[in-house]
Design goal:
binds iron/sulfur cluster; about 70 residues; mainly beta
Length: about 70
């Protein structure tokens, strides 16, 4: 289950992808609609460990500190 959290947070997890160019690379058709720079996306990103769209302030029990899992 993904929940709201203060620490650790998805933003600090190696699975969290929120960089626009990396998102556009992972999802080749994404910029047909717009670009990953859009303000609608806000602080959400893709969890490549669980294949979910998550918000940076969420967390789950699969959290991996950046650098521990290769991210
Ligand atoms: S594994 Fe969990 S903590 Fe890490 S980005 Fe995904 S949902 Fe967030």
């Amino acid at each position: 289950m993904v929940t709201e959290a203060t620490d650790p947070r998805c933003a600090d997890c190696s699975g969290f992808v929120d960089q626009p160019l990396q998102l556009e690379s992972e999802f080749p058709g994404l910029n047909i609609l717009s670009s990953a720079l859009g303000s609608v996306r806000a602080d959400s990103g893709w969890c490549r460990l669980r294949d979910l769209i998550v918000v940076s302030r969420h967390s789950c029990d699969q959290f991996q500190e950046r650098g521990e899992g290769g991210g």
